[in-house]
Amino acid sequence: MRPGGEPPAGGRGRCILTPLARRVLEGRFPDAPDPLAEWLPDRPDWRAGLPDVDVLEYELRRLRRNGGKIVLYGHDDMDGITGLYVGMKILGGEGFPIVPLLPQRATDDYGLQPERMEGILQSGDLLLTVDYGCSAVKGVRWARDLGARVVISDHHTLNPPLPDAHGMINPQRNQSSPAVVLAGCGVLYAALVSLFPSWENRADLLTAVSLGTVSDRVPLLAWNRYLLEEFRKIDTDELRGGMRLLAEEWPSRGSAWTGALVRQQLTSTVGKGEGSGMEILLDFMRDADMARCLKVWKDLGRQGRQRAGQLSRLFSQALKLRDDQAAAYGMTLVYMEGIPDGMGGTLANKLSRITRRGALVVSPREGGRLVGEARSMGDWDMAGFLVSMIDRFTSAGGHKMAAGFSCEGMTWEDLRELLISRISEYPVERVPDPHVDLVVEELPDPEEFLCLAPFGSGFLPPAVLKGSLRYLLQVGQTTASWCITEESGD
Q1: Cα separation of 152 and 422, whole Å?
Q2: Distance of CA 71 to the CA centre of its chain
Q3: With helix as H, strand as E and coil as C, how does 63-83 read?
């Protein structure tokens, strides 16, 4: 975060605020006694903000005493895999034997699948989830019947019925907690550093958590803002190989950046689904050989450009396949064949942004399964919507802005009828109006606001109103400017 041109109006750490930036914070946090502290808090009390950390502590002590291993079951996206890295680094460093598990997006349903754990999880082991598990009633029951202990670490929306785990570290259980903004990797990081403080603020852990946080589009507020500020301060000389490359590739890490820039430069390069860098990301982050990592990164960049072209073609097709009846009820619904694994969510996100309403993309998979990826502009509670039909699905979960499901034994015609009937009655909120922070007579210097970066979900770039025109701050890697637009800037 870099200073603007006017004398400082306030600051915290190395962050110096201009008077105009201070006015933006005062407008965004009108009820806060100290808007600066609300925006960039001091070091959190990790343990106080999360439930059931004491349960995890008890289970780890029991494991040390009685033996057994930790089966670390992660979600197969950037949030889940960076969380796996955090868990393996801290718990492995503390001497616990660990077996990481990742589902295969092409074949596995969402959630904890007994067939993935069979032969690996044993009686007396600890099943610890990462970015996963708060809707996994079946998987948790299977693990407990086996004689394993189960602690869930997750950040997704809680929709009953909840699994009968021994512990559930999910900040959504207390909506007033500042931890409620954390991504899945952040939840596990906060829980573990509260138990093992010597691991706090390690450069590689902050890099992993920051990448997972920004990639998962959680709000860049409260505890997330603190973590990102600590990440800004890291010394990359402390990093090796893949983790150093990720930190060095981070656009404008030491100054002003946006979540969109990071997702474009890092998240999109890694990709998602079968054949993407997601399959090797965990090994890449743990690889200390910089020459090998540079070669892998170059290959991933080439593959990412190919995926971008493929996504453009699929998006054009999806626009033509929108369901008119669903659109009449306020949702963009698309059924498409030939969507590669991991690309349905990206399509749904683009459709949601273009149509400015919730979007659900459904595609067929092997064995007659149907899978869906949903994204929201804030109008639809996608997790609540999908979980409300859990009795008809084999799995469903997520959070308000992003969720997914899978089902078997149902044709598209039957599924569409179910979805339309539920869409027609499910409560929907208005898409938020484009924000305006200041009304001005002349456009201020864009540099005045860069001290407020990073910008992204939950903390959008400043927007000003001059006359009848709304100008949004556009932040590039080397430039900042104003743009006339009604876009949110996320």
Answers
A1: 30
A2: 22
A3: HHHHCCCEEEEECCCHHHHHH
The continuous run of DSSP H or E covering 402 comes out as: strand 402-407
How distant, in Å, are the alpha carbons of 217, 242, 245 from that of 290? 29, 6, 8
Is it the case that residue 168 has pLDDT exceeding 90?
Answer: yes
SS3 of residue 168 by DSSP: strand
Number of H helices, E strands in the chain: 19, 16
Q: Both tokens of residue 175?
A: 């909506």
Please say if the pLDDT value at position 215 is more than 60.
yes
Looking at the predicted structure, is the pLDDT value of residue 308 above 60? yes
Strands 15-17 and 126-130: unpaired
CA gap 490, 487 in Å, rounded = 8
Percent pLDDT > 90 in the chain is 78
Give alpha helix (H) positions in 288-343. Answer: 290-320, 324-328
Closest CA to 56 of 156, 153, 145, 133: 153
pLDDT score at 30: 96
46-234 maps to which CATH number? 3.90.1640.30
Per-domain boundaries in the chain: 10-40+433-484, 46-234, 321-423
pLDDT in tens, 447-486: 999 999 999 999 999 999 999 999 999 999 889 999 999 8
Axis crossing angle, helix 203-215 with helix 78-93, rounded to the nearest 10: 160
Residue 146 has pLDDT above 70, yes or no: yes
Q: DSSP secondary-structure letter at 339?
A: P
> What are the phi and psi torsion angles at 52 (to 5°)?
65, 20
Three-class SS state of 398: strand
Q: What is the DSSP string of 420-462?
A: HHHHTTS--PPPPPPP--EE-SSPPPGGGGGGG--BBTTBPPP
Q: pLDDT, tens digit, for every residue of 22-55?
A: 999 999 999 999 999 999 999 999 999 999 999 9
User: Residue 127 corresponds to which tokens in the numbers above?
Assistant: 């099943």
The domain defined by 321-423 folds into Diaminopimelate Epimerase; Chain A, domain 1 (3.10.310)
The radius of gyration of the chain's CA atoms, rounded to the nearest angstrom, is: 22
Tell me the whole-structure pTM to 2 decimals: 0.91
